[in-house]
């Protein structure tokens, strides 16, 4: 298991921080995302240090949590960034990220997004199809630039994760087919405005075993050797992200063991190694605070209706994902098996099923391991304003995103004249 626990259950505080979550809920209201600076820094350092003297770049996968304060914190630690849109590029630049440490992934990059990335001077485009090579070449030519490219190959490795977040199987939309990689590198070489720079793969998310990573690295290494034999110069290997965290009973490898295993599988090569962790950097650095609005007892079930919902944290509804739910302030209700549900009008709007808790109205709960793919996947469904986000830093609590107002939410919509 990773060396950075998410939460000190006994004291109602976040990892390494001294501010009570109860105080945060009173000051900023609920629902509210709370992150720990200490946990974020510890997680980044664990990945970074694990490389020892080996040339490497940790490119945080922005999609996991794109709050500017988090990006800025990571940029200050020296992190690079894995982006998947022009919007994420803007965020990284605004947060002070170094464009020379940015890789751009994604199957559907648009010409405008390519232009912005070329203008910023990013490190590499992780190209995912032959058609994308042609568009990138054209856009780069128009700007009189040479685009650095890696091909993201799909190694057809079973990541043994939820099917919605497996990306390295041949039936997935991601990457170019492994057996076509050499042919596509040869096509890439023919484009005047592209420069082959690296080789990339990413097999999926929330992987809790090393086996699939090592298998993918073996395939990538074999391909690298064949490409070098064919005369291609590959400066870096991007091995993607995907290291899982503990939500329930999982026992994922520590960042250090994961990095050590990747490096061992690649062996002593000259290429710089890139990784793109998202969840493992921020997942256990954040919780979602929510208050019990109502308890509702029916002959069949006991419901705790809380003020957070699937629009705030959609992982349970989307993947049937488990997040631990712990009382922060409990006022001593009877213990029951509760369905923890939100106010949204969907039966799928649940945050946890069958949780044994002693609850009463007004209790404060923390939904654990919510730092990754929580706020970044939130929506305004049911016209619910997005939650606030705060970062705890020792004795201080910084509001890093205000709770959205209804005015902000409705701005931009227009009625017909
Ligand atoms: C290309 C790419 N890189 C990195 C990541 C980050 O994954 P994770 O948050 O599982 O580390 C993802 C998401 O799966 C991704 O699609
Ligand atoms: N959104 C997913 C992870 C997707 C990874 C992105 N490729 C989750 O919450 O688990």
From TrEMBL:
Gene3D superfamilies linked: Alanine racemase, Lyase, Ornithine Decarboxylase, Chain A, domain 1
PROSITE patterns according to UniProt: ODR_DC_2_1, ODR_DC_2_2
Binding site for substrate: 279, 315, 319, 346, 373
Pfam families the record matches: Orn_Arg_deC_N, Orn_DAP_Arg_deC
Cofactor(s) named in the record: pyridoxal 5'-phosphate
Keywords: Amino-acid biosynthesis, Decarboxylase, Lyase, Lysine biosynthesis, Pyridoxal phosphate
Root EC class: lyase
Chain residues that bind pyridoxal 5'-phosphate: 242, 276-279, 373
Chain ranges of the Orn/DAP/Arg decarboxylase 2 C-terminal domain: 32-371
Active site as annotated: 345 (proton donor)
Positions carrying N6-(pyridoxal phosphate)lysine: 63
Recorded superkingdom: Bacteria
Known partners and oligomeric status: Homodimer.
HAMAP family per record: LysA
Annotated NCBIfam families: lysA
Primary role: Specifically catalyzes the decarboxylation of meso-diaminopimelate (meso-DAP) to L-lysine.
Similarity remark: Belongs to the Orn/Lys/Arg decarboxylase class-II family. LysA subfamily.
Name listed for the protein in its UniProt record: Diaminopimelate decarboxylase
Native organism: Nitrosospira lacus
Gene of this entry: lysA
């Amino acid at each position: 298991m990773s060396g950075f626990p998410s939460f000190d259950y006994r004291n109602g505080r976040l990892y390494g921080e001294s501010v009570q979550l109860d105080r945060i809920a009173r000051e900023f209201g609920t629902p509210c995302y709370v992150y720990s600076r200490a946990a974020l820094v510890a997680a980044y350092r664990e990945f970074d240090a694990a490389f020892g003297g080996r040339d490497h770049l940790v490119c945080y996968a922005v999609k996991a949590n794109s709050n500017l304060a988090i990006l800025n914190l990571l940029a200050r630690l020296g992190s690079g960034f894995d982006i998947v849109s022009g919007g994420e590029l803007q965020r990284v630049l605004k947060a002070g990220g170094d464009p020379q440490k940015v890789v751009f992934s994604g199957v559907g990059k648009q010409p405008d997004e390519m232009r912005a990335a070329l203008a910023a001077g990013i490190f590499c485009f992780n190209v995912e199809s032959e058609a994308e090579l042609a568009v990138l070449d054209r856009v780069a030519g128009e700007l009189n630039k040479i685009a650095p490219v890696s091909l993201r190959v799909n190694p057809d490795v079973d990541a043994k994760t939820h099917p919605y977040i497996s990306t390295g199987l041949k039936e997935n939309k991601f990457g170019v087919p492994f057996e076509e990689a050499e042919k596509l590198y040869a096509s890439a070489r023919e484009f005047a405005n592209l420069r082959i720079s690296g080789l990339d793969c990413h097999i999926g998310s929330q992987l809790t075993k090393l086996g699939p990573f090592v298998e993918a690295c073996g395939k990538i290494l074999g391909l690298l050797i064949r490409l070098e034999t064919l005369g291609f110069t590959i400066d870096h290997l991007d091995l993607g992200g995907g290291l899982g965290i503990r939500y329930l009973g999982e026992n994922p490898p520590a960042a250090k063991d994961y990095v050590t295993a990747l490096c061992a599988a690649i062996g002593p090569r000259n290429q710089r190694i890139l990784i793109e962790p998202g969840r493992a950097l921020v997942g256990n650095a954040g919780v979602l605070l929510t208050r019990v609005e109502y308890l509702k007892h029916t002959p069949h079930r006991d419901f705790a209706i809380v003020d957070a919902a699937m629009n705030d944290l959609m992982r349970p509804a989307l993947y049937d994902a488990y997040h631990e739910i712990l009382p922060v302030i409990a006022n001593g209700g009877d213990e029951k098996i509760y369905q923890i549900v939100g106010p949204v009008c969907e039966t799928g709007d649940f945050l946890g099923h069958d949780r044994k808790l002693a609850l009463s109205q007004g209790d404060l709960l923390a939904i654990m391991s919510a730092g990754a793919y929580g706020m970044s996947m939130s929506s305004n469904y049911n016209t619910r304003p997005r939650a606030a986000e705060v970062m705890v830093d020792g004795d201080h609590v910084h509001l890093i995103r205000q709770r959205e107002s209804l005015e902000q939410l409705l701005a931009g919509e227009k009625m017909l004249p």
